[in-house]
Specification:
Elements lengths: L3 H20 L10 H10 L5 H10 L11 H7 L11 H44 L5
């Protein structure tokens, strides 16, 4: 089983370099055309010359966009608010939501009162006819 580990590592590097070469845009390939790099990786992959050559010299590698690595960015970039209840924007949005909900509730209550009054008027006007139905 231990003898299999170097073979698997070579195979993994070979596959990684091959896929990286295929996915790299043509304008980022250095030195040779992309097709030649694919052939070099495939032909010399067993001895690791092709994949290592691709990783070292085949692709134009750029640094990250801020000029710093992700870990440096995380160290230097602190979020301003820790919890939602410390964020004034979040708290003001809650207040706005509460105001909106209160307006909606008030309009529902007004609508309910209007409907109740309407039902009372109907019952009051037709209540006499129901109390003394015509006999026939």
């Amino acid at each position: 089983m231990i003898r299999l580990i170097p073979v698997l590592l070579v195979l993994a590097l070979w596959i990684y370099a091959f896929i990286d070469c295929l996915n790299t845009p043509e304008e980022q390939v250095r030195g040779l055309p992309k097709v030649v790099w694919v052939i070099i990786i495939l032909l010399f992959g067993e001895v690791l010359v092709g994949p290592i050559a691709w990783l070292v010299a085949g692709k134009h590698r750029t640094g990250p966009e801020g000029g710093s690595t992700p870990s440096e960015w995380h160290r230097n970039h602190r979020t301003q608010w820790v919890a939602p209840d410390d964020n004034p924007e979040f708290l003001s949005s809650l207040r706005e939501e509460n105001k909106k909900d209160e307006r909606l509730l008030k309009s529902w209550e007004d609508d309910l009162r209007r409907r109740e009054e309407e039902l009372r008027r109907r019952e009051g006007g037709s209540g006499d006819a129901q109390e003394n139905p015509p006999r026939g």
